[in-house]
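SAMPLE LOG
Freezer: B-3
Tube label: C17
Construct: single chain, 108 aa
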Amino acid sequence: MTSPYHSCKQVSDCTGEFFFIFKDSRQCGIAAFAKDELDLFLSTHKIKTYHFYVQDNHKLKIDIQDTYGVRHQSPQLLIVQHGKVIAHLNHYAITAKNIAHAVKDSIQ
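STRUCTURE (predicted):
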């Protein structure tokens, strides 16, 4: 399976660094709120983030669900470390505060 998140997943497996996968939607009003909150968090934290619209890449959406074992939702933020999802947030739970709480032990 070839996709942008795969090469980073391999890096994460080796280094322990974590990264985000943000599944966005053009058809959901909640997605705009979630993206704003993610951008707010990323304005003060440098974390590799893969962002895609689920309408543009159905196969990637399914591959991510199968690879990480987390049921697909959108918007959805997956936080991946050591090749596993260490946390995931969906819909209105995607806030800068909740993201910070989810990664607090991984940020140095």
